[in-house]
Amino acid sequence: MELISLFNYKKKSNVAKAKNGDKEAFIELINENRLNIYRVAKGILKNEYDIEDAIQNTVIKAFEKISTLKNDDFFRTWIIRILINECNDILRKNKRVVSLQDSIEKEKYDDKYKNMDLINAVKSLNEDLRNITVLYYFEDMSTVEIAKTLEIPEGTVRSRLSRAREKLRERMKEV
């Protein structure tokens, strides 16, 4: 119990330090959340370059805006929300622009997950269903945490999860 309290105190103090301009504390917060950030970006975006861009933009925005974080306990939720917005911006931009370079890269790009039918099925879901699925199954966030992160009612999260599961079942039957 004391170890958990010590960890929470350290985490809170890093957020407070970062809010006061301590760059090292901010870097430590990013390092603590690095894997979560990558997994969420990977679950939403397909291209490794887009994932890197989304993460980079997220870190920059979080650093610039950390003083606006109201509750230090919600740092993880806050940064994931910034990341989701960045990923969605990249997806919107990519829909508008399809370049020859992208199609060449897709032919060369060898993703070790490309043969995983479930990952492909998740990525084929529409944006709302995909985001919730990634947060729930890949990030192990509860429906309450997802609702707070996405700023939507918890009932909406549950209904979208249900629709996503049904669509995934259908797509997996096809495979």
Explain how this protein is built.
The protein is an all-alpha fold and 175 residues long. It has 2 domains: 1-109, RNA polymerase sigma factor, region 2, helix turn helix motif (Rna Polymerase Sigma Factor, Chain: A, Orthogonal Bundle); 111-175, Arc Repressor Mutant, subunit A, CATH 1.10.10.10. Helices cover 79% and strands 0% of the residues. The chain is built from 9 helices and no strands. It has helices spanning 2-19, 23-44, 48-65, 75-96, 100-108, 117-124, 127-138, 143-150, 154-174. The chain is globular and about 55 Å long. The model is unreliable at 99-111 (pLDDT under 50). Residues 29-96 form the RNA polymerase sigma-70 region domain. Belongs to the sigma-70 factor family. ECF subfamily. InterPro entries: RNA_pol_sigma-70-like (IPR039425), RNA_pol_sigma-70_dom (IPR014284), RNA_pol_sigma70_r2 (IPR007627), RNA_pol_sigma70_r4_t2 (IPR013249), RNA_pol_sigma_r2 (IPR013325), RNA_pol_sigma_r3/r4-like (IPR013324), WH-like_DNA-bd_sf (IPR036388). Keywords: Sigma factor, Transcription, Transcription regulation. Residues 117-168 form the RNA polymerase sigma factor 70 region 4 type domain.
Number of strands: 0
- Major sheet, described briefly? none
- What count of domains describes the coordinates? 2
Q: Catalogue the unreliable spans.
A: 99-111
Do you know the CATH topology of the largest domain?
A: Rna Polymerase Sigma Factor, Chain: A
CATH top level label of the largest domain: Mainly Alpha
Beta-sheet strand percentage? under 5%
Give the class from helix and strand content and strand pairing. mainly alpha
Sum up the overall morphology in one term: globular
